[in-house]
Amino acid sequence: MKIRDMNRDWIATARTLNQALPYLQRYDGATVVIKLGGHAMGSEEGLHSFARDVALMQQVGVNPVVVHGGGPQINGMLAKLDIQSEFVRGKRVTDAATVEVVEMVLSGRVNKAIVQAINAAGGKAVGLSGKDANLMVCEPTDAELGFVGTPVAFNPDFLRSLHAAEIIPVIAPIGAGRDGETFNVNGDTAAGAIAASLKADRLLLLTDVAGVKNAEGEVLTELSPGQIRAMIADGTVAGGMIPKTETALDAIEHGVRAVVILDGRAPNACLLELYTEHGAGSLIRTPR
């Protein structure tokens, strides 16, 4: 690389940092909950890029909370162990054998891989599940689904104490039952509920699509809860996007300022959303 080209790159970097200043100030001290989906984790390189983004966010004053999924990893382990799954109305039944595998994969391999990546990037992360410090107490969602749980009680003060110690919580969506049960919780549901308990400034739902699309297939950059409900009713929002948008609506109703659905596979997706004018993905919030 020629010297003048290097200087041009440095100037561009400095200009980018200068333009980011209002957004750095805007999110100083803000709590941002990030749901990292199993598909959005992508490659090892993608995970390390995400980890650097989270470490940087903390460095510039954000209080990040990472909640992760791991559906593909769970499916792979169930197949490896030859554990067959049953489905009721299209939803997987989580029996005693399955919930053991779910906890092993999510609280073990997936959780620690994310923690290790953030720590390697210069952050200070700790791996948890909803069972730690009664972080997420659950009740059965549906008796027919077995150990699938709905969060009903939380311990946000525990997460705040970690932030005060400059520790990044990385949470596996495993919940504790009131009678000592272990519950598998949908990752989006867990992230939305934890964000609501913290009254988070932002909930970022990182997935494998670019955002909420209209009937023409174009990503919509900003939506109100009313528009989302109308799009669900007329079928524009369908399939796997329905539970994500419903998570967003519930989170906003319970105190989260805004939710963004964005493609977690895109490089620096979180930084683009928080620190640039155009953002990334689809922002859902109540009109001001």
What does this structure look like?
By secondary structure, the chain is of the alpha/beta class. It has one domain: Carbamate kinase (3-Layer(aba) Sandwich). Helices cover 45% and strands 21% of the residues. The chain contains ten helices and 14 strands. Strands 5-8-2-1-11-13-14-12 form an eight-stranded mixed β-sheet, with helices on both faces. It has a four-stranded mixed β-sheet with strand order 7-6-9-10. Strand 3 and strand 4 form a beta hairpin. Helix 3 packs across helix 5, helix 4 crosses helix 5 and helix 7 packs parallel to helix 9. The chain starts with a helix and ends with a strand. The mean pLDDT is 91.
Secondary-structure blueprint:
Layout lengths: L2 H24 L4 E6 L1 H4 L2 H16 L3 E6 L2 H10 L6 E2 L2 E2 L3 H25 L4 E5 L6 E5 L8 E6 L1 H9 L3 E5 L1 E4 L4 E3 L2 H12 L3 E6 L14 E2 L1 H9 L7 H13 L4 E6 L5 H7 L6 E3 L4
Parallel strand pairs: 1-2, 1-11, 2-8, 5-8, 6-9, 11-13, 12-14
Antiparallel strand pairs: 3-4, 6-7, 9-10, 13-14
Helix pairs in contact: 3-5, 4-5, 7-9
Unreliable segments (pLDDT under 50, ≥5 consecutive)? Answer: none
CATH superfamily: Acetylglutamate kinase-like
CATH architecture call: 3-Layer(aba) Sandwich
| Rg estimate, integer Å | 19 Å
Number of domains: 1
State the distance separating the first and last CA atoms: 48 Å
- Counted by DSSP, the helix tally is 10
Instruction: Return the string of H and E elements.
Output: HEHHEHEEHEEEHEEEHEEHHEHE
How many strand units?
14
Main sheet: which strands, in order across? 5-8-2-1-11-13-14-12
Average pLDDT, all residues: 91
Largest sheet: 8 strands, mixed
Helical amount among residues, as a percent range? 40-55%
Can you tell me the overall shape? Answer: globular
Main CATH class? Alpha Beta
Helix/strand structural class: alpha/beta
Question: What portion of residues belong to β-strands?
Answer: 15-25%
CATH topology tier name: Carbamate kinase
